[in-house]
Amino acid sequence: MSKTSINSRKNLLNYLRNKLSNKDRYTLEKELTKDPFLEDAMDGFAQLSADELENDLAALQNALENKVKKPKSRRLLPYFKIAAGIAIIIGIGSLIIYLNTSEIAKKELAENIEISKDSDSLNQRMVPVEQARRLLDEMSEEEDSQQIAAAATPKTKQKESKTIIKKVISISEVYENEETMLYDEELVLVEDIVKVSAKDAEVGMIEIEPIARQTTAQPAVVGYSTMSSAPKIELAFTIQGTIVDADTKEPLPGANIISHSNNGTVADVDGNFNLNIVDDTMIQIAYIGYDTKKISLTDIQQNNNTIELEVNNVALNEVVIVNSRINKKQNTKTTAARSEASIDTQLSGRVAGVSVKKSKTSKVKWVEISYHENYEIHCAPVGGLRKFEKYIKKNTRIKPETPKSVSLELVVETFGLLSEIRVTKSSDDTLSEEAIRLVREGPEWEPALINNIAKQEKVTLSITFH
Amino acid sequence: MEQQKDDILIEKYKQTQDLEYLGSLYHPYMPLVYGVCLKYLKDRAQAQDAVMDIFEKLAVELIKHNTPDVFKTWLYVVAKNFCLMKLRHDGSESNAFKKMSAEIMDNGFSVHPLDENEAVDLSPALKNCMEKLKERQRISIELFYYKKLCYKEIADSLNIPEKKVKSDIQNGKRNLKLCLESLSNA
Fold it and tell me: Is A61 in CB contact (< 8 Å) with chain B?
């Protein structure tokens, strides 16, 4: 027996029905040990009677045949697919055509909007939203009553036109939102509310009879609208003019010309300017160094569109830059600390162009500073020499019986620091040390100045102890 | 030979994707698949649905993957896995699932020494282990493998139900296997 026949339905069924010979049985059973697939299947078969199994297998066979046959019906499927596709295309096509016809109507309305927008009129009545809606409702009521009376055909057309109105209103609502910021009342871009009468023949030819000629949104002029979404506003006047100096008649480029807090311009290189203004307000022209001028439009026009500015009498001071330093100890500016010095020194640094030759020494009773350089302003202890002398008198720990002097060489740096303290002449070492200590712990020094720039200076300081 | 036929059919199906070829391929094995599904799913209706589902699965898998070496074995594995998945899907902790997975574990894919050859040669080890078997198991095995009696005949001669014969032989085989393994490990 071949394998196929062993596995055949017939054989299996016969086995189950005990119709096989022992030998055949054995063959099958032997096969079972080798073929786990068969073994498992036989285990499964044990659940059913042979008849049940036979039926089931027959059913399965049918099912399989059906499944296998399906492709033939599937071959028809592509045709169905094509047919479905064509139907969809036709559907979409008709939809597009329908939309196009209504698009045309919309466009015509839109064109009318454009035309009415360009109209120049100011001060037109503005229709609040509620009113507009009421109007629309009234209209639709009208239409409804008309519809009942009218014949069958116009009915559909009116419906369509109604939808167009609704579309129009929706545009205006969108517009509304954009404009809410500036305006007093909510405005409706009521593109001439359409009065659709039953007479109208076709959808695309709606006669626009404006009920209320409330057209393009004319804003209440609160201020200059800088919103880009708002329609451009035609303003009443444009001034042109030239700003010149009253005396020299020279143009003043860069002069500021203002009509409102947020409406202004600047004169160009030749002093010319253009400014849009709403009405006959005053215009203000300002320029540094000149008196600010307020002038009306009529005045400008009378003066041949030239505006003259008078030079400001309050002259500016010359600017003199002086090095000033905050005194750390006293926390005050020390520019005035030079009061000790002579007029020469006071002048120099205060008046531009004046520089004074300094004397070579500065002296008080017990302290003397000798200068070696020819600086405009020499370095000096803060507070002046007199104060320095007082300090020394107060703080000296050594008071010799006979006056003894110590000479020190100092280098005063640009920040006023003493970078060098050196004894040049002294009779007494302890005195020298004392002198050095006093200078180090003493008041700070101000540096020398040349052309108002701090400079390092070497001076000789001699202190006489007494 | 059958295998060749199967392979040809598979190739043809792959080329043309014509289900007719697949149907011809599947047809002879359908009872086996049904049996397996019956065994694991336990339910007639479910088993029948499973047979058709497995057919559809074949349609996909054969195209997706390379042609299996031995279609029959591969089909067997596919069928078993399908049933396993179905059981798991229906209720993972169900007894049927547990039983099935246990069985699959048990059977493995290794062929029992007794079944390897047509002519059973008694290697010493095998002989040894045979003697260690329980009486009835040993007898059943001997009758089946050596005397080549069918289950029915064995049942008749031993006066035990056929099912008992089957289970004796199965258990005997398992015990032999264990014994042989232990011998080889020692």
Answer: yes
Query: In chain A, count of helices (H) and strands (E)?
Result: 11, 16
DSSP code at position B28: G
Please list every residue in chain B whose beta carbon sits closer than 8 Å to the beta carbon of residue A23: 150
Number of Cβ within 10 Å of residue A288's Cβ equals 11
Contacts of B149 in chain A (CB under 8 A): 22, 26
Whether residues A26 and B150 touch (CB distance < 8 A) is answered with yes
- Confirm if A409 and A403 have CB atoms less than 8 A apart: no
What ipTM score was computed for the predicted complex, to two decimals? 0.82
Whether the CB of A45 is below 8 Å from some CB of chain B: the reply is yes
Would you give the distance in Å from CA A38 to the centre of its chain?
A: 80
Q: Cβ contact (<8 Å) for A40 and B80?
A: yes
Task: Return the DSSP state at B155.
Answer: H
Closest to A367 measured CA to CA, from A300, A294, A460: A460
Two structure tokens written together for B69: 């070496």
Amino acid A133: pLDDT:
61
Residue appearing with tokens 């540096």:
A447
Residue A59's CB is within 10 A of a number of other CB atoms, namely 13
d(CA A419, CA A413): 7
b/e burial code for range A138-172 (CB count within 10 A of at least 16 → b): ebbeebeebbeebeeebeebbebbbebbeebbebb
> Would you call A212 helix, strand, or coil by DSSP?
coil
Taking residues A292-300, what's their average pLDDT?
Answer: 86
Strands, DSSP E only, in A300-394? 306-309, 361-363, 367-371, 380-381
Q: Is there a contact between B72 and B6 (Cβ–Cβ < 8 Å)?
A: yes
Q: Is A390 exposed, middle or buried (0-12, 13-18, 19+ CB in 10 A)?
A: middle
Q: Indicate whether A93 pLDDT > 50.
A: yes
pLDDT in tens, B27-60: 889 999 999 999 998 888 999 999 999 999 998 8
Q: Which of B5, B49, B47 is nearest to B26 (CA)?
A: B5
* Cβ <8 Å between B32 and A41: yes
Judging contacts by C-beta atoms under 8 Å, the chain B residues touching residue A26 are 148-150, 153
pLDDT for A188 equals 41
d(CA B76, CA B11): 19
Which of A33, A69, A73 is the best mutation test for B, with the most CBs of B within 10 A?
A: A33
Cβ of B35 and A68 within 8 Å?
no
Chain B contacts in chain A segment 10-29 (CB below 8 A): 12, 18, 22-23, 25-26, 28-29
Strand A306-309 with A237-245, pairing: parallel
**Mean pLDDT, rounded, for A54-77:** 79
CA distance A223 to A278: 10
User: B71, B25 in Cβ contact below 8 A?
Assistant: yes
CA atoms lying within 13 Å on the CB side of residue A75: 7
Q: Give the integer Cα–Cα distance in Å for B81 and A268.
A: 90
Number of neighbours of residue A369 by Cβ within 10 angstroms: 20
How far apart are the C-alpha atoms of B32 and B72, rounded to whole Å?
10
Q: Which two tokens stand for residue A307?
A: 């505006």
Q: What is the pTM of this model?
A: 0.40
- If DSSP codes are grouped into helix, strand and coil, which group holds residue A236? coil
